[in-house]
Design brief:
By secondary structure, this protein is mostly helical. Among the domains are: 90-105 and 195-308, no CATH class; 557-678, no CATH class. Helix content is 68%, strand content 0%. The protein has helices at 7-16, 20-31, 40-48, 55-60, 62-75, 109-117, 123-148, 150-183, 200-212, 218-230, 239-243, 247-268, 276-281, 286-308, 312-322, 326-329, 333-347, 352-368, 373-387, 396-410, 414-438, 441-445, 450-466, 474-490, 497-514, 520-525, 535-538, 560-580, 587-604, 608-633, 642-646, 650-655, 659-674. Helix 9 (200-212) packs across helix 10, helix 15 runs parallel beside helix 18 (352-368) and helix 28 (560-580) crosses helix 33 (659-674). It starts with 6 loop residues before the first helix and ends in a 5-residue tail after the last helix. Residues 121-148 form a coiled coil.
């Protein structure tokens, strides 16, 4: 039996080792405070107790709801997508077309030798052989395991039997469904063609028959062969692999069908010219209904071909040829949505030729089918944001290409694009307000990332392209300007100079399209300050590329390369700003403060290679200021005379004889030679 604690031990335990009951009483007293007369006690309870007693406060406090909404918007800037994709308008073209038995199959000696020897030398067959060897290896391992463990063999045999029964039942159900679908289609589309081999001579004969007479029965045979070609290589035991055992025949079928089918369908519809309006008006006519099974088979198999191909060069060729058939896709909206979904994925793949071919096809389908424009705008915008999350020297050109394509696509319908722009800019503004309010690390990271900055850049480009033609973008214009200046104010310092240069370049673009003045130099000189550093630290090696970074690492701030990049990039942005106002009557006032700051910057830097471009910049701005000042002294109009102010130095501007114009051209040329781009 344990001894009883002494008096001193009990006193020490009572004072320093609180019991469970005493500890719980103390904790309860913190939460169950009495309500004071001024009502502050209950508010403290609600603040301390995050779960209990605060539901009413959260419902009635609008600021808490706003914070929740901002957090939701910050998680994803993407537009919501409608995943309910219908694909029923081509469901009756899944099977083969009926073939004319009089349409002969031919064989030649080359193809017979290929079939007899079964020699396949292309890459696809080599991959099939490798997979077959891997499967055989796994089978041998499984056989050894079964011989070693009889209980596991019995267990596997039991479940394998149940799986076979389930698959046989599922296959029978699918066959019943296919039979029910085929019963509603043309009676000639039930049975697959015979398993005769498709030889090069057979395809050549069919192609010649179709070219001579588009209504020839060989057209159905060619489309069935095209279906086999689109399924070629997917399953070694499929009918397409049995009929197509040569890649030469595969390319022969694909090239002919993709290049000639559009003209053949036009001939069957008796439309001689390339008028897409006439073709779209034929959708409800009898001629369209007669060849509709052929059109559906061609479109459905083309989609299967796009989804199965992995070679970018072949995909580029297929999309280039298939672009002429976009008008046929427009007759089936759900199929067009499926096509657009594939095209958007290929458009954002990163391959330049494939991206261009995909975008041309996207623009064609979107212009022909306005009902799919919303779907197209949503998909492309989300793909752009996903592609621009990470920016480096390898993908910056591709992101800029995607950006230009997206601006062109959004310019097809300014009204719809403007509505989406307002929503997106509202999300950006909400995130910026939250970060400005809290200045927390997590909220700042929502702004200091490529996705946020590239989203701003998207709407800047969109405004610049459509500002002169559409006067409904003024509200969007002012919102974007406020966001740019808010981000620059929120992220100051030398480390954010690359980001601030990008924002200054955006303001230059907006100023150029609207002819409004923005204090661009203030965004640059606010962070462009150098302190004298030891020579050893200045010559440290380190490469920084402002085009692919937003924030400079701390260990690069004192490097010489960083200082050179800062000065040269600042000169590029400032020269673009001064060039825009170089012939304006107010240029002397525009250049006064920047000249003072440039001279101060020249005095601060100790790198001789930077002093020369700064000195040249100062001399050119000073010379242009004196030139405008001399011209301004001889005029007699008032600054309130808008027409006279607008026509000031208009002839000189058209001739481009000012020295600053030549200076800006040299700066732009040197920028292209270095291959750098700020935005």
């Amino acid at each position: 039996m344990a001894k009883k604690l002494g008096k001193k031990a009990r006193k020490f335990a009572h004072k320093h080792l609180q019991g469970g009951a005493k500890r719980s009483r103390k904790l309860r007293s913190q939460f169950n405070r009495r309500t004071r007369k001024d009502g502050k006690g209950r508010e403290d309870d609600n603040r301390l107790n995050g779960d209990g007693g605060s539901e009413e406060t959260r419902r009635n406090d609008p600021t808490m709801n706003m914070n929740d909404d901002v957090a939701t918007l910050a998680n994803c800037l993407e537009f919501p997508e409608d995943e309910n994709e219908l694909d029923g308008d081509l469901s009756d073209s899944d099977g083969y077309l009926s073939e004319d038995p009089e349409c002969m199959y031919y064989s030649d000696s080359d193809d017979d030798n290929v079939l007899k020897e079964c020699i396949v030398q292309d890459d696809l067959d080599e991959q099939n052989n490798e997979m077959r060897l891997a499967v055989e290896k796994q089978k041998r391992k499984l056989k050894k395991l079964l011989d070693k463990d009889p209980k596991f063999a019995n267990f596997l045999e039991k479940w394998q039997l149940e799986l076979v029964n389930f698959e046989s039942k599922e296959d029978s159900d699918e066959q019943d469904e296919m039979d029910s679908v085929d019963n509603g289609v043309d009676s000639g589309d039930k049975d697959p063609p015979s398993d005769k081999i498709l030889t090069s001579k057979t395809i050549s004969e069919w192609c010649q028959l179709v070219l001579d007479e588009p209504k020839a029965p060989a057209l159905r045979n060619l489309l069935n062969a095209f279906r086999d070609a689109c399924q070629f290589g997917l399953n070694s035991n499929s009918l397409s692999m049995q009929r197509l055992q040569s890649t030469e025949v595969f390319y022969q079928i694909i090239s002919f069908v993709l290049s000639k089918t559009d003209n053949i369908f036009r001939a069957l519809l008796e439309i001689s010219d390339d008028d897409k309006g006439k073709l779209m008006n034929q959708r409800n006519g009898k001629k369209w209904q007669d060849i509709e099974p052929l059109i559906k088979s061609y479109l459905r198999n083309s989609l299967d071909l796009i989804s199965q191909l992995t070679d970018n060069q072949i995909l580029t060729y297929v999309l280039t040829r298939l672009r002429t058939s976009a008008v046929y896709f427009s007759a089936y909206p759900s199929t067009s949505r499926r096509l657009l979904k594939m095209l958007v994925r290929l458009w954002a793949s990163g391959d330049q030729n494939l991206s261009l071919s995909s975008f041309l096809m996207i623009r064609e389908v979107a212009s022909l089918l306005p009902d799919c424009l919303d779907f197209c705008l949503t998909k492309t915008y989300n793909a752009y944001l996903s592609s621009s999350k990470i920016v480096d020297n390898r993908n910056i050109e591709n992101i800029d290409f995607i950006l230009n394509c997206l601006v062109e696509l959004y310019s097809l319908d300014i009204q719809k694009a403007g509505e989406r722009a307002v929503i997106s800019v509202g999300q950006l503004s909400a995130i910026l307000r939250q970060a400005s309010k809290t200045k927390g690390k997590e909220d700042l990271l929502k702004i200091d990332n490529w996705q946020y900055i590239n989203c701003i850049n998207l709407w800047v480009r969109f405004i610049c392209v459509n500002y002169k033609d559409c006067h409904n973008l003024h509200l969007l214009f002012s919102s974007v300007v406020q966001i740019i200046r808010g981000v620059a104010h929120l992220l100051p310092g030398m480390r954010y100079l690359p980001l601030r240069l990008k924002l200054a370049q955006m303001l230059n673009e907006l100023s150029n399209c609207s002819q409004m003045f923005f204090p661009v130099p203030s965004l640059i000189f606010g962070s462009l300050e150098f302190r004298e550093t030891p020579q050893k630290e200045q010559t440290e090696k380190g490469k920084t590329h402002f085009s692919s970074i937003l924030k400079v690492p701390r260990n690069m701030l004192k490097s010489r390369d960083f200082q050179e990049q800062c000065v040269l990039s600042a000169i590029e942005v400032l020269s673009a700003h001064f060039f825009q106002w170089s012939y304006h009557v107010s240029f002397p006032e525009v250049a006064t403060i920047p000249l003072i700051l440039l001279k101060r910057l020249q005095e601060q830097t100790t790198i001789e290679s930077l002093r020369r471009p700064l000195k040249r910049m100062i001399d050119q701005v000073s010379e242009n200021r004196d030139f405008v000042q001399r011209k301004r002294e001889v005029v007699s109009f008032s600054p309130n005379d808008a027409s006279s102010v607008e026509s000031f130095l208009q002839e000189e501007e058209m001739n481009g004889g000012a020295s600053f114009t030549q200076f800006y051209a040299s700066v732009a040329k040197s920028r292209q030679s270095r291959g750098r781009k700020l935005v």
